[in-house]
Amino acid sequence: MEFSIKSTAPEKLRTDCLLVGIYEGRKLTDLAKLLDTLSEKAISTVLKSGDMEGKAGSTLLLRQLAGVSASRILLVGLGKAEELTLKQLRSSVRAAVKALPAGVESVAADFASLSIKKSSVQQIASALAEVVLDATYKVNAVKQKSVEPHALKQAILLVDKADQAAAELGATQGRSVGQGVALAKDLGNLPPNICTPTYLGKQAEKLAKEYGFKVEVLDQAAIEKLNMGSFLGVTQGSDEPPRFIVMQHLHGKKTQKPVVLVGKGITFDTGGISLKPGADMDEMKYDMCGAASVLGVFKALGELKLPLNVVGLIPTCENMPSGRATKPGDVLTSMSGQTIEVLNTDAEGRLILCDALTYAERFEPAAVIDIATLTGACVIALGHHVSGLFANNDSLAKALLDAGEKAGDRAWQMPMFDEYQGQLDSNFADIANIGGRAAGSITAACFLSRFAKKYDWAHLDIAGTAWKSGKEKGGTGRPVPLLVTYLMQQAAK
Fold first, then answer.
1. Catalytic residue ranges
2. pLDDT at residue 493 greater than cutoff 90
């Protein structure tokens, strides 16, 4: 996909389709007014006929308007003018891209000229580039016939000459985020017999070669040398070998402490001996979406070349039942030395993450953020709209929440009071791996917090946001936009 920033007069631009905003109540944007005049009231006439009201996300295609060089005009509903936000614009542009006729290869819009609350030209350009990439994404299905790419090849944003540099920067940022999201989707959508821990390790090495990252992919013997007993307890039931991936994007000053991202990489989760119900178990291929998001972020970092030091840690394995598998009642010894009573083998994500969090200490990090499809309880609490956020530092939590708002990839902070810690008490080990049904997502975060006391830490529970079920089944690429926006904000400091 090619993104272009131009200051050409909209009516003179030769393109397959020009997107033109219409506010609710059939109110015309400035561009709509101009084209309406040139076309002898063609736009206002069709609106008066009742074909379109301007409701958010609605569209209406017009062809061969007099005085306009574009082959087609797609009227795009923006909702109420006084309530237009960047979030609403994203939604309307997504609807417009989905509504494009099959033959459209180039599209243009002047949405940077709209009055949008708390949004600059750079932010608008970034949002548009990202949403166009996302709306044209096609699942990388394993089928005999290759999936045809989307017909759209070029998107043009029209701006004033004075805004060209800011728009180009924004488009670059949005395109980079979009590419990171696409990689995270691709990895999540792959079947688990292809996307194994070994495969994820190779994808990390491929990214490192492409962008010059440092990378280590540790095998089981190396993991054993690190005394990651909790991680190894999860993988021991599977014939598929585990991997521990360490990636480093070192573009900041040598004295700059890194941000460490830790992604849960369970490439398939049966629940182990605590076997899950069979219905929808195929979706447990998405239990590595935390790992996929870290790789997606590194893809974006490579494109942006952010002047920042970032470390990515991915513990990855399968959770399978077998004669070797960890049993309920077993006690594991973590890398930190803390012992863990395994009361439920389906609470395995925290068992691989806790060793990675201990490993993160060696980088003396500025902050550590783990990303995991961790608990069904988080889905019950927050649904599929926002990710759950837990943190031991309020400033870090606020920065992540702000980044999520700006990126249109929201999170919501959940409590993690000391009173919840008691639910993890064990008579036979330092800590139990579950705290009962009540407050399940909170006690899972409390478990992880026991291994993150030496630095500022946040946990994103993406169980409700990492993929969609039903007709639109597939990975979402979240929270790549949130994380990249957060890192851009850190780099700007």
1. 276, 350
2. no
